[in-house]
Structures are given as C-alpha cells and as structure tokens.
Amino acid sequence: MTERCQGDTRPRTGPRARTAIVLAAAALLAATSAVFLPGTASAGTTLGASAAEKGRYFGTAVAASRLSDGNYTTILNREFNSVTPENEMKIDATEPQQGRFSYGAAEQIVNHARSRGMSVRGHTLAWHSQQPSWMESMSGSALRSAMLNHVTQVATHFRGQVVAWDVVNEAFEDGSSGARRNSNLQRTGNDWIEAAFRAARAADPGAKLCYNDYNTDNWTHAKTQAVYNMVRDFKSRGVPIDCVGFQSHFNNDSPYVSNYRTTLSSFAALGVDVQVTELDIQGAPAATYRSVVEDCLAVARCNGVTVWGIRDSDSWRASQTPLLFNSSGQKKAAYDAVLAALNNGTTPTDPPTTPPTTPPTTPPSGSCTATLQDSTRWGDRFNSQVTVSGASNWTVVVAVTPPQKVSNTWNGSPTWDSSGNVMTMRSNGSGNVFGFTTMANGTWTRPVVRSCTAS
Ligand code: G3I
Predict the structure, then answer these.
(1) What's the mean pLDDT in 430-436?
(2) Among 63, 257, 412, 419, which residue has the fewest nearby CB atoms (within 10 Å)?
(3) Whole-prediction pTM value?
C-alpha cells in the first residue's frame, strides 16, 4: 500500500476512484489481518509506543529526586516504556555501609515504572566508580567477597523486577591498549567479571545480564575489540552473559561513526542482545539521533534505546544540551527525528517470520468485545494487537502461556496477577486498540483474551 506523506504533490484521484481504492484496501486488509498484520508503524505517536510496535523499548534514565516534578513525570509517563535508575542502584546508593543495604530511592523508581507498565534496566552491580568509601579502601579476597555479596544481595532483592542488569560497568581502559582498567576490582584477579556474572545469574536467573561500557561504539577502536573478544570468550566458555550495553555518550571528541551499525551487528552475531543504554549527543543533532535509532532497528537483536535523561536540564552534562527535550520539556528536532525513525523503521526479518496460522480469537465478553490478532513475529518474540468494540472505557484480561512473558505493552495501562502470566489491561485514553509483545521463551501459543468488561 502506498502512503501519502505531507508534501506529497502527486495528482490526487477523484472521489469515485478514491472510494474504490479505499474499498479495495479494506478488502485486502480483511483478507490479510486474519493471519498477519505488519507492524502498524504509522500509529505510534510516542517514543515508547512506536518502539514497542517494532518489538523494542524506548527508555530513559530517571532520577528519583525528579519524580516530584510534574513536568518531568508527565513526559516520562507519556513517552517512555523503560527506565534506568540514573544513580540509585549504584553501589554507593544500595550498600552505603558494608552489609547494610538501602533500596528506598531505587524502589521509588522501580515502583513508579512498573506500576505504569514500564520495564526496568538495573544499573549497575559492579563498577570501579561510585563505590562507597568502605569498598574503595578494600582489596584482594575481602574485596572480591564483598563485591560478590553485593551482586547477590542487590540482584536478589530486585529479582523479577529488573529485565536486564548492567552487571559490570566500564571495566576496560580507554585508548589503544585494549587492556582491562586498572581498578581495585581488576586487582582481585582477571576473573572478577565472570565471577560477577555467575553471581548475578544465580541470584536472578530471569534477568538478562549485560556488560556495559562507553567508547565502544567505533568498531575499529581497540576498546571495542577488547570488549568483543571478552564477550566471544565468555560465550565460548559458557559464562552467563546475555547482552552488551553501548552507552553511546557522543560528543565532539567521541562522535557517532557510521560503523556503529557494524559494531552492534557484530556483537549480536556472537549470540548476545545489544542495547543502546545511555544515549546523549552533544547539541542533539537530529540526523545523528535518527541514525542511532535506525542502526538499532536494523539489528534484530538490538532490544531498545535508552536516553540518559529526559530534558537537557536533567542531563549530567546539561551545558551540551544533548537530550530530546529542552529544559522546559518541549520536544526538540531530535525528538521528531527519533519518532520518525521508529515509525519508518524496517522490521528485521531474521530469523524467519512465519506467522501463527490459527484464526484470531473472539473472546467471551460482557458488554464489550475484544479481538486479538497476531502482528509481527521475530525469532524470540511476537506482537499481538487487541481491538475492543462496544465500550470506550474497558478492561480486558489476557493470558499468556508460561514460560512466555509479556515484555512490552502500548496504548493501555496493564497490571499483572502474581504469576505474571495474566495481564489486566485498562483503557488509558489511547483509543480502542492496544498491543503487547510476548517473549516466546520457546512457546508460540497465541495469548488468549479471557474477558472484556465495560466500565
Ligand atoms: O545527590 C548529591 C547531592 O546531595 C550533592 O549535593 C551533590 C554535590 O556534588 O552531589 C549529588 O550527587 C551527584 C549525583 O550525580 C546526583 O546528581 C554526584 O555528586 C555525581 O557524581 C553524580 O553523577 C553521576 C555520575 O554518573 C557519577 O559517576 C551522574 O548523575 C550520572 O548521570 C552518571 O552516569 C554515568 C553512568 O552511571 C555510567 N556511564 C557514564 C554516565 C555519565 O557519567
């Protein structure tokens, strides 16, 4: 189907021809939607919803201290479907005194996010920086034990609430050496990183475990290659690593480069997911923001993009105005570019995209009807779309089959039962069509609509 864009100056057809085209298009849609709906790309009007339609998330770093700022939370709640605590899960915040854990600020963010259907990235369990003073002064086996205990305690505390952890952060040197950073953690022995990953896996087997770093965007750089070699080694030896985070703090000294997509795809080819975890770009050039998003969309295993703050005034380097919203909370040109990239982006076709073949489910209903249709399918997940008729304020209950898990939703407000398998979706003013992404975890059974209730 050809779409007409603003600025399209092609001659328009007359009313009868237009009617015929509309009828033909409707017939085509009716014929195809029973089995497969391509991504409804044009429907997305917020970053999170548009990313979700591509099976991705769009996230932001959040500071607990800003959750009382209405301008900030309005944008957060409207635009984003993933959240990373900016500082509140770091070691100095969560274990300020050895053995005494403090989760209040982190929980504030986690609760804010999860109660609104946003997922949470955990940042970070083991890092040479932002260590509490008791840890900074430790070394050797005592430090190794303290680090592993920290990983275990924090990952256990948030078990089931964090979809991906930055288990280890920034463990490599900048420059041409390709060496590990000389930190107190590194001096406990070269195996400290894999030990941290094993402890995290044992503590929260359901979370994706990431290595996260900066200046690893340029495929030709020694640091990028060093991290790549570590991940390849980990995969070959069965060290439990699931993903690599690319912070992507771009500035004039460390700019975006066109081989970024090569970097993402090369890591993905090792059998890990890749995520853009802390994106900000000096001056927020729209074209560069767009390129980053297009690069992620082009790589099937790129799960999503997180920007490192909402408004320029929220940024750790505010003077560089590197974010998508200005300090008043207004959308910048970079925002429009990112949204356009998310809406126009292609859906990766690898692995095969065989759609489910059973017909859509028409559920039992009270005074409304909810119809579930299959949408885009990838190698590890699939999207579903539910259309509600007969009510504008509705509550729809949908169940997925374990071990499936819903990882993203859009155009509704979800809550969950204790098993995590039954989602109650309520209308939130976004219309009568909502969607969600299900991680198959090896099971491709279609989700079932259990009920539709008007309220
Ligand atoms: O909260 C205190 C406040 O009470 C005090 O008055 C003030 C005075 O300095 O400090 C405040 O804490 C600051 C904190 O940010 C919250 O604003 C810390 O000093 C400051 O060091 C801290 O900076 C954070 C930085 O990591 C620390 O390394 C930035 O917010 C945070 O954006 C930044 O994030 C890192 C990622 O974790 C890893 N990748 C790089 C990225 C940017 O540096």
Answers:
(1) 83
(2) 419
(3) 0.72
